[in-house]
Write a structure and sequence with these properties.
heterodimer, B: 380 residues, 8 helices, 2 strands, rod-shaped
Chain lengths: 101, 380
């Protein structure tokens, strides 16, 4: 998985692409640390380029949510695609954070 | 009772011609002998026809009565069968209602659990499983992060040890140099030499300590690496398939519940159909009472024919007995009778009519001949 960070006025956007799995843990962790140190109050993960997430990835997203709420920021997941969208729905992520179609 | 005008015609003696023998206004000429013969012949023919008619009326009576009995018998049979049909439909309906009961619930131990409850239970359980899988994923990734942090700290310690060892080596070298200088200084350097020695000893034991620490750190790092490997095994078990299965299972359950509804609907339809059958059967049974009216009407017909036959018989006898000199006979016109019988297609009817018309029998006809069967089929 690779990513790009785009700062906006009200939020910081992280565009993820490729397959998001266990092997990306080190990268994702440092990404989250970087995002938390930004000043913007909202962190947006654009998932439109992600074609697959495994259960480890879901776990990492949950950990990210814990981190960001400690830093008093909120998470938005944007435009999840087919497999990713199904996983997020079945795992009821919409009850834990904002998921924008 | 038929108001027959009983006229006695004096034909054996010529009537005297003359006005005084006849009622005023009517002149009756004496009939010539040839006319008389004609008249007798006519009367004889009439008697013959009358006898044929009489026998035919008897035969017809028998036919009509037979027919009426047949219809009565068959109607009774049909009424019974229709009643049985209605009963069966009701039984069927009861059975299907039982089916509904079965389709609606599943027996579990002592309980009858409705299908919708089962579906909900499964759905909730699946939801639970998914939650737990997620929690497992989250915690194991958290462990991976923690091990990572630990590794970093341990590496840091390892660097410190390396540094200590380096310092130690330098200290040792310095002590060695100091000892050499001390020897060169002779007596004045004796104390210095002692101190230098102590420093070398200290350095040695520090080295020993460093080595021990290094051994421990290696062991620690080994443990960490193994822990990381195990966690990786756990965390990379991709549960995404299992999570997606929840969707499919829920769809199947929904299908199950829907099929149940469909079954219920069908059963209700079956019940309604059974009701319809019952109602229709009642109507049929009522309708078949036409048979009663028919029987009565036919009885009237039979009665009338009997009356006619009797009247004919009376007149025949009277005519014959009034003119003994003419030697009138009462015989059926067999030619005519045969041509009538030839019209009948049904073999058994033919047999009966032969018996009554040609043979003049009043009783039941003889057993029908084998060719009957073919004739009966013709009817259909």
């Amino acid at each position: 998985m690779h990513y790009a960070v785009i700062p906006h006025t009200e939020s910081t956007e992280a565009r993820l692409a490729g397959r998001f799995t266990f092997t990306d843990y080190a990268e994702f962790r440092s990404l989250v640390d970087r995002l938390c140190s930004d000043t913007a109050a909202t962190i947006v993960f654009d998932l439109s380029g992600v074609d697959f997430v495994d259960s480890a990835a879901l776990g990492m997203l949950l950990l990210a949510r814990d981190e960001t709420s400690k830093a008093q920021k909120r998470i938005v997941l944007r435009r999840p695609q087919t497999q990713v969208a199904r996983m997020l729905t079945i795992a009821r992520f919409d009850e834990l954070m904002t998921v924008d179609a | 009772m038929f108001g027959l005008a009983r006229k006695t015609v004096e034909i054996d003696a010529p009537v005297a011609s003359g006005v005084d023998a006849a009622p005023p206004g009517i002149s009756v000429a004496a009939p010539p002998a040839a006319d008389t013969a004609d008249l007798v012949s006519s009367v004889q023919r009439w008697l013959s026809v009358s006898e044929t008619q009489r026998r035919t009326l008897h035969a017809l009576r028998s036919e009509v009565t037979h027919t009426s009995d047949d219809v009565e018998r068959e109607t009774d049979v049909m009424t019974d069968m229709f009643r049985r049909l209605a009963d069966n439909a009701q039984t069927q309906s009861a059975v299907t209602r039982q089916l509904v009961g079965l389709a609606d619930t599943i027996r579990c131990g002592d309980e009858e659990v409705p299908i919708t409850t089962v579906a909900q239970l499964m759905s909730d359980t699946l939801g639970d499983v998914v939650s737990r899988v997620l929690m497992l994923s989250k915690e194991s990734m958290g462990m991976v992060y923690a091990l990572d942090d630990l590794s970093r700290h341990v590496m840091q310690v390892e660097r410190c040890i390396a540094h200590i060892e380096k310092i130690n080596r330098e200290t040792n070298l310095l002590a060695l140099n100091a000892t050499i200088e001390a020897v060169r200084a002779g007596d004045a350097g004796k104390t210095f030499a002692v101190v230098a020695n102590e420093v070398r000893d200290l350095s040695k034991s520090t080295n020993g300590l460093a080595t021990t620490i290094r051994t421990q750190i290696d062991a620690l790092l080994g443990g960490l690496r193994r822990g990381h490997a195990v966690l990786k095994e756990v965390a990379t078990i991709d549960m995404s398939e299992q999570i997606l299965v929840k969707e499919r299972l829920e769809a199947l359950l929904a299908g199950l519940v829907e099929r149940n509804s469909a079954i219920n609907l069908l059963v209700r339809e079956t019940s309604q159909t059974a009701e319809c059958i019952s109602r229709d059967v009642s109507t049929i049974v009522t309708g078949m009472q036409f048979q009663d009216r028919m029987k009565q009407r036919l009885e009237h017909v039979v009665d009338t024919m009997e009356v006619l036959a009797d009247a004919l018989s009376e007149l025949q006898t009277e005519t014959q007995e009034s003119h003994p000199a003419q030697a009138l006979v009462i015989e059926a016109d067999l030619e005519w009778a045969r041509s009538l019988i030839d019209r009948y297609k049904l073999g058994e009817v033919k047999a009966r009519f032969v018996s009554r018309l040609l043979e003049g029998r009043e009783d039941m006809p003889p057993e029908p001949v084998v060719e009957e069967a073919a004739d009966s089929i013709e009817l259909f």
